[in-house]
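Action item from last week, closing it out:
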Amino acid sequence: MRLGLMTYQPLSFCLAIICCSLFSLSTQAQVAASARVDKQNILIGDQIKLELQITYPQGQNLIAINDADLKAVEELEVITASRVDTISRDPQYLLQQNFVITSFDSGYHYIPPFEILFQATGGIDTTRTNPIPIEVRTIPIDEQSELANIKPIIEEPTKFSDFLPYLIGGAVLTILALIIWGLRQRRSKIGPPPPPPIPPHELAVQRLKDLDQKQLWQNGNIKSFQSELTYILRDYLEGRYQLPALESTTGEIDRSMKKLGDLGEWREELIQLLHTADLVKFAKSIPPLETHQQAMDTVERFVEETKPQPEPEIPDQEEEKHEEEKQAEDDLDN
């Protein structure tokens, strides 16, 4: 029995040592957080740099840093908050976040603790930093001192950048003036509008006169004569009746003239003239000599009889009245 008790005591001692060791390791593995400031006494409106550091062992996960309590303090204002930086990973994680805060309310205030949420073995756990007291002081006023005079305005030295806006504005105005001047010069160079086009019948009469003076068929140039004569006729049909005669065959012209219906007996005579010219130009046919003069006369008569007629002038009522009075006076004299 004694031997059993003696054996049990060393065993209990070893178990106690192992438990103490595990408790020590568990303590070392806890998440730690601390906050510190570069100064705790400031003048109103000055800035304080706040540094937050968090350490935790590998294998644990940091969930969030809750700074809502700091933002809820009305007397303090967070100017900037940096992102969370990882400073070290071995032997444990070291995280750091920096804040810049200020205050415009004099008195004593507290920077509230930060709440750190992390994933522990038994679930989500939290740790907190220490609260930090700060004092915000106003500028002391000496009521015994006299008011100082208003200082004069400090004039800055003149720089090139001071004149840059004026130079840019002047350059823009100069460019606009040159553009306006160029447009006016361009308009002044544009001459008067072109004269109205010559009426189709006048142009055809002039071309027929020029063709007659060339004496082509009389000198054996039958093909040239027929080509120019039919061109004059086709161009007149296109200008006078808006028929696509210049780019159409004789058969297409015949169909267009039938649809027009205003040419009457002229259609058959003109189509016969065009057929004769086609035979001369493409089949090298040689018609009787009198055919050429007859074709010339036909085109001249066609242009003369189908040219637009001037509208009758409507006599002015005043002129009619004047003529009637003059006629009445002549009757009285007789």
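Closing note: The chain has nine helices and eleven strands.
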